[in-house]
Amino acid sequence: MADELRSGVAPVTSAERIGELDALRGFALLGVLLANLGWWTFSGFTSIPEQRDLWMSDDANRTAILLLNWLVSDKANTLFGVLFGIGFWVMYERLKAKGGDFNRIYLRRLGILFIFGWAHMLFFWPWDILHMYATMGFALFALRGLSMRAMIGIGLTLAVFARPTVELIRKYTGVEESIGGIVWTPEAQAARQEAVLGNDYGAWFNEYWTMATQDYILSGVFIGWWLYVLGRFLVGAWIARQGWLQRTTELLPQIRKLCLIALPTGLALEALYTAIEFEFLAAPLPVAKAIHATGVPILDLGYACGIILLFNSKSWSFLAKLFAPVGRMALTNYVTQSFLYFFLITGVGPGLAQAGKLAPSETLPICFAFFAAQVVFSHFWLKAYRYGPLEWMWRALTYGEVPAMRRKKEKAAQPA
């Protein structure tokens, strides 16, 4: 089996890697960290209404939440999803070129991620994205034969309209209110916070199992999220099929122009959405959803163009390249971040039990400090090893044998 899987396949070398992709993954992981810790501490998952009202009455905390909503929320997961689709197509083309069995390798790789992601969500981190990526990764695999036009058409439709459409259906059919009466009442939120703060994993698991079944599965929320993810995968695969990331140096003038348009436009649209979301401005809900659904991909396009320009800059490339080692170890760093959330918020085991105590403005410096540590760790780890720890395990399970972990030291030149 291992020989069949490896046929014609060799590990991607440093020279074969697309450096911009690694930098973009690292940048997206910073956004994931900020959004996850910021919203998990502020939402009804771990806090109660009185605590949130108190935070929003404070200038520093209100500013932190507004900035998070404006600059980060939904942008990080969107960029990460597009990058997954790009990675899928790059792997597809490389394995075909090498004569490798893409179907078997990819499906086995995806099956391992599927098991890991669902276990990660159900037993440890309720906001896991890996289970969605694995599940919709199978759909992306099934749709790989789409024409270019169909791929971008379906991708954009799902990416822009899937989640807001499902959210509006839930609202106007009464599903949202019905589920809210089970999991979002003040009493339910207080019980959830008590379980989070206590040193009782069983109680914590029961609370979040209820959340997963009621507010994620039975409410239909998962439909919007999964289709939203699939749309971003398809957009990413379409971008890779265009070959743009393989030609960034020759496309820099166009990327610069695109950045100058997309970045301010996306910032303006998301600023408008944030103003509506926090009731500084009034607008019908469908209008707010449409602004957000449009603003997110435009702002992400601006972010991505900006990182690519920085990466290829003569003077400032080091800023973008700081993200690259983190992106090369994306799975390891993503899971490590979930350990941080669990340790800070819960009282389980050595947890610090900060649910309801850790203010939004306090989460931002924690996130930046932790990410800086991940940058340093990833940089030094990859100096000595070929893969991140979880990437190494994932590859071993995919190919059925243990790959070499340590980098080979170059032999010193022999004297003549």
UniProtKB/TrEMBL annotation:
Origin superkingdom: Bacteria
Location of the DUF418 domain: 240-400
Keyword Transmembrane belongs to the record: yes
Ranges that cross the membrane: 27-48, 76-95, 107-127, 133-161, 216-240, 290-311, 331-352, 364-382
Pfam families (UniProt xref): DUF418
Keyword set includes Transmembrane: yes
Protein name per UniProt: DUF418 domain-containing protein
Source species of the chain: Sphingomicrobium sediminis
Phylogenetic lineage: Bacteria, Pseudomonadati, Pseudomonadota, Alphaproteobacteria, Sphingomonadales
